[in-house]
Amino acid sequence: MYSLSQSVRVRGAAGEPLPNPFKGLTRLEAELRRGELSVVAAAGGTGKSVLAVNFAVQSNVPCLYFSADSTAATQLSRATAIITGDDSKVIKRKLHEGDFAEYAPALAQRWWIRFNFEARPTPATLELLLECFREVFGIYPHLVVLDNLSNVDAGAADSAESYTFGLEGLCDYLAEMARETHAHVMAMHHVVGEYSDGLKPIPQSGLRGKISRVPSLILTMHKEVDGMSGRTLNVSVVKNREGREDSSGETYAALEFNQSNIRLRDVDHAF
Q1: Is residue 7 part of a domain?
Q2: How far apart are CA 72 and CA 128, in angstroms?
Q3: Quick check: is 8 in a domain?
Q4: How many domains is the chain partitioned into structurally?
């Protein structure tokens, strides 16, 4: 056990916020803090993975990304587009045609971002790759992305009750992982059917499986489409142990989504 004075010395990097590429989220006091678990929840196709890969690339910190929901070609094209500003469709075509060498120098500058593409990783896989990351780089990653939470093979769930218990137990496990490694663990998650169109603010109660107890930070996302290929992703802070929150989801930061280069950037206003 530690006194308050001793706790200053033993806390390590726990609680330190990662660089936040989005000023709107900073204004809402939504920070990804090391040693903590966050959950990002939205309807399918809203842009959870887009937000995650933008955080991974734009925050520019050592990152281990478990991409169970997207293939290597998709994530490589997205990350390359964010880094270079080139059109992601052109990048993917060049990737499939074997004409990708021009992007090698830009990608080499992000050597500390590592991906795993298993569709059903187990907790043992998560632990193994975390230790591999530390063995290679001498440190644990500062950011661990789990895309998606429900893709982790944590054992059979043969009823709604066991499914919910399994997700809550998995969140407990991930929170402990964050605390032990001083990484921020960001897990993508789905929402209940009422919010499956992705077009309205999602409250804290809209998360599938009712897992809100464990994460320190919960963000939900909905989209606005202007009918001319423009899209805005609105990120609500519905739980936040370290700052402002609005469990209704009606308070959010607006991010402009460039569908060509996959980049997200702040919209000038935030609600």
Answers
A1: no
A2: 20
A3: no
A4: 1
DSSP element (H, E) containing 67: strand 63-67
Q: Which amino acid is at 145?
A: V
Q: What is the pLDDT of residues 241-261, one digit of tens each?
A: 999 999 999 999 999 999 999
Alpha carbon distance 179, 198 (integer Å): 32
pLDDT of 270 reads 45
Per residue in 11-31, pLDDT (tens digit) is 556 689 999 999 999 999 999
Note the pTM of the prediction, 2 decimals: 0.90
Decide if 213 contacts 261 (C-beta within 8 A): no
Which positions ≥6 away from 134 have C-beta within 8 Å? 140
CATH for 162: 3.40.50.300
Among 44, 30, 25, CA closest to 191 = 44
SS3 call for 188: strand
Q: Which domain does 122 fall in, by range? A: 13-266
For residues 248 and 220, is the Cβ–Cβ distance under 8 A?
A: no
Angle CA 268–266–151, to nearest 5: 145
- Is residue 13 within 8 A of residue 35, CB to CB? The reply is yes
For the chain, what's the residue count?
271
Give the residue carrying structure tokens 């990708």: 100
Q: Which is nearest to 151 in space by CA: 70, 211, 73, 83?
A: 70
Tokens read off for 159 = 């009823």
